[in-house]
Amino acid sequence: MQHNPGFLKLVEQVRKRVKECTVADAQARLAQGMQFHFIDVREDHEFLIDHAAGASHLGKGIIERDIETAIPDKNAPIILYCGGGYRSVLVADTLQLMGYKNVLSLIGGIKALRDAGFSLEKDKPI
Q: Which of 58, 84, 86, 122 has the fewest CB atoms within 10 Å, counting from its CB?
């Protein structure tokens, strides 16, 4: 997908304020048995196509409204992903503004997960 310049500029500005991780980082955490919330922030229809095994879904449009119910512990480790690593950066910034202290955005999003052969699920009810 070709992104608009204004969107890319915003993401680059916000990226300076958030921490990111790679698929390898996420896989290492899983291999070490580290617990974290793996949150897919894409749209509902994208999530239904496929998503990371074990991921929860809180779309970018509703996450601010629902995150405190889903994850009340603001120190809980959270890894966010989207389609390509742009929307998740914006969401990570917002969650930090809401007081979440251990939020990462996955570089490359679902595309990077697919490329790495990460276990995916399909058609899981939302």
A: 122
